[in-house]
Amino acid sequence: MTNKDNIRFIQGNEACVEGALYAGLNFFAGYPITPSTEITEHLSERLPQTGGKFIQMEDEIASMGAIIGASLTGNKVMTATSGPGFSLKQEALGYACMAEIPCVIANVQRGGPSTGNPTHVSQGDINQARWGTHGDHAIIALTASNHQDVFKITVEAFNLAETYRTPVIILLDEAIGHMREKLIIPEPGELPVVDRLRTHVPKGVDYHPYLPREDDRLPMSDFGAQHRYNVTGLFHDMWGFPNNDPAVVNGLLHHLVDKIENSVNDIAMYKEYWLDDAEYVLVSFGSSARSSIHLAQNRRARGMKIGVLELQTLWPFPTDIVREKCANAKAVIVVEMNMGQVITQVKNAVDNPNNVFLANRIDGQLISPTDIKTVLRMIQGKGV
Amino acid sequence: MNDTPFNFKDYVRSRFFPHMWCPGCGHGIVLGSLLRGIHELGLNKNEIVMTSGIGCSSRISGYVDFHSLHTIHGRALSFATGVKLSRPHLKAIVPMGDGDALAIGGNHFIHAARRNIDITAIVMNNKIYGMTGGQFSPLSGPGKKATTAPYSTIDNEFDIVELAKSAGATFVARSTVFHAVEAKDLLKKAIMHKGFSVVEILSQCPTYYGRKNKEGDAVQMMEGFKNNTVKIGSKKLEKNPNLIQRGIFVEDTDKPEYCEAYDHIIETAMKGNS
User: Fold this and answer.
1) Which of A79, A280, A374, B110 has the most beta carbons within 10 angstroms of its beta carbon?
2) DSSP bridge pairs for B197
3) Residue B2 — very low, low, confident or very high, per pLDDT cuts 50/70/90?
4) CA neighbours within 13 Å on the CB side: how many for A324?
5) Could you give all domains of chain A from N- to C-terminal order, each with its CATH number?
6) Which percentage of chain A shows pLDDT scores above 90?
């Protein structure tokens, strides 16, 4: 029996808050921006109730800086934003990639570019999540289509941030962020929560903060604890001290990319619906996946062999999984609310990219099952 | 207090020397004053987090044997705010250059001051962007030469002391690298002050500012600090009001410190929760 207190009827943004607290969030810095503000508002109330710290910073950049600082003292940290704020955070986000600081950034997507369409839905920041900060790097980005999954991927975002010592981006969209639906908060222990890997190097023994173990992991030492070391955004040696020796630069960049790209299948989260015999596969994520699932259910009832692959991990892109799940499809339709961002990855993944089609909507309105059906009929040569 | 003799090597990472500052740069004197001050205070090295941004001055953080966080340009105070609020028992010291602190970092500077969070901000003011090769800064002032002002600057400068005061800093002081002992004593007071403290230390960049503006070599520039500055309220000001004043301009212990104020928020929130 589920405890009644654990059943909520809330916004997706609040489901993200609940997931973060479940994962052990104890420091949040944010700045007001639609449509993510509710995350910041709720945490201003909830965090101090648990002894955690909340701060509203002077801008988006400062919020990103503050969570990195607080992560280094041993906290689980998060910030929340939307498009324009996400743009502003990119330099510090790259710093967290380079210095390998665990942190979570929720981006509740609105229409862009620029100020765009603040109160309307979009999924236009998928590529920004991947390549928003300069230079080669790897990144993890997760998304979800319902509140139960928002909770789950938020917990997972913290787990992955700690495991891989990296920023993890939660890509919600305005529809999910503001929509209200049921959430059942899992009991403690029901979902795994990963704690930070800390060094066992004793006091007085040289600790190498940036010397990866054989498994590529780097045990941390909290600022304030016995090991004093340097953290920098410059290329650095095993002590964290700036170093531009070509071998050091080459080795560090490979480490930063490989630690994530080599674990793509471990990081991949997805859901599948009716894929076993599917001739038509809808690949989707976030609120677009809800319309995709609705349409597939509706067409299945009329005998059509159609299924849905719902991606929850967008980066690193689960290329092998997408190829395998789409292997037997006559046509793959990527359903997303942008000009075609995930479709590029899907075309790259599948054996026959000519069979991959885009069903999209970019006008600030939620893509509907009918929108997807129209594309489906065109592909089938049935007209609209 | 600490009565043992000061040994520079106890406080630096010898492995990472020689440092990268030019011959004649004033920043090493600031480092010396700071480390002597920390030694005299008898602080535990494990309880000091030095956070810096980008620039010549910001490289200080790498050389010292404290927890050190070398961040991105202009944002050091925001990173330090995260360090301090999450672990208020740590001493947060933020060395910055004039461009780092007051151009790209100006917003963080005034807001950290407004919050009165217990961070010690040291602005090493050499009136120039040194690391990028001598461009004018918001502290250069009008009529100066720089690589981006070949015809001279028309930009007015900030007065760091007045800016820090009006933004709400509760400890504000100024010294120069000529007055290294005075600078050390001011830094000690700033570090022990509960609240946001700002210490401006005039430092020389003979390589760029000095050469471009014909102010001579390092020794001549330091003599300039001796001759053009006076203690606050000096009688010399009556004859020459343009002399730069040194000393403590603000020392206010009444205003609540941010982390302590937040502890009260936690108490209130926890009561409401139970």
Assistant:
1) A79
2) B120, B171
3) confident
4) 7
5) 4-184 (3.40.50.970), 271-379 (3.40.50.920)
6) 97
CB contact under 8 A, B70 and A53: no
Q: CB-CB: which of A53, A71, A75 is closest to B262? A: A53
CB within 8 Å: A91 and B72 = yes
State residue A216's pLDDT score. Answer: 86
Task: Determine the average pLDDT of the residues in A355-369.
Answer: 98
Partners of B89 on chain A (C-beta within 8 Å) are 224
Length of chain B: 274
CA distance A109 to A117: 10
Could you tell me which of A296, A295, A292, A291 has the C-alpha nearest to residue A283? A292
Average pLDDT rounded to a whole number, residues A158-187? 98
CA neighbor of A345 nearest in space, from A129, A174, A88? A129
Q: Which helix (H) or strand (E) holds A343?
A: helix A342-349
CB neighbour list of residue A80: distance below 8 Å, 6 or more residues apart: A13, A16, A28, A30, A36, A39, A40, A105, A106, A107, A108
Tokens encoding A32: 């007001």
Phi, psi of A101 (to 5 degrees): -105, 120
Q: How far apart are CA B160 and CA B172, in angstroms?
A: 9
- Chain-chain contact of B72 with A225 (C-beta, under 8 angstroms): no
What's the topology of domain B8-273?
A: Rossmann fold (3.40.50)
Neighbours of A230 (CB within 10 A): 27
pLDDT on residue A1: 62
